[in-house]
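User: Please predict the structure of the protein below. I'd like the answer in structure-token form so I can feed it into my own downstream comparison script.

Assistant: Understood. Taking the following sequence of 223 residues as input:
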Amino acid sequence: MRKIFVLLALILFTLVIPTGVVHASSGITIDGNFDDWKNQPVQKWTTDHFTYHDVGFTTDDKNVYVYVSMAPGNPGNYKVMQPSGYQITINNHTYDLTLHLYDKLWILQPGEGGRFSADVWDRTKNHDEYLNNAGYILREKEADGRGNDVMEVAIPIKTFGDDVNQSSTFTLKNTNLGTDEITTSGASTAPYALAAIGAIFAAGGLVIYRRQQRQKQVVVNEN
């Protein structure tokens, strides 16, 4: 009996390890190096069909990530980062994301950057979550000497509480940047997979236990 349970435990351990690998990190690091957004969902948003903003949105097991480049290579003047108006909707519940940039927007010079904090407001629960040093902003220096603001921010999945489940979809919009929106999914199924494996493990152990009990009963009766 003990050997069988050891074998089942080894199988359970083996199955849990790939679960973590399948739901790996998105590869986004909040460091002001935006190359890791090249393979992520990024759209062109605009309010005037003249200045176009690059907006990215993705998730992984740990965070929801937002990326904005205000007007890369565009002739428009709307290049200072938009700090508010970001709405993240999860399963019909809306959260407002505000970037704490007011101490930086008017002092950064082209080529300068730094970390910033943010707030996430839960409209349903009337609750505010403060995210310390959650993002990074860089005022990129363009060929004409002007600066174009680029930022990335990570919001921990736990910020959204029980709104996140196996089938969650995440939608980002900001009417200050355009009328479009980005929808993505990526909530981890690891807890559900682990629970399912645990249930199989328990059920298998129960079946084996009952079978052995029946075998013992047969032996007793024969004697």
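That's the full token string. Confidence is low (pLDDT under 50) at residues 5-24, 188-203.
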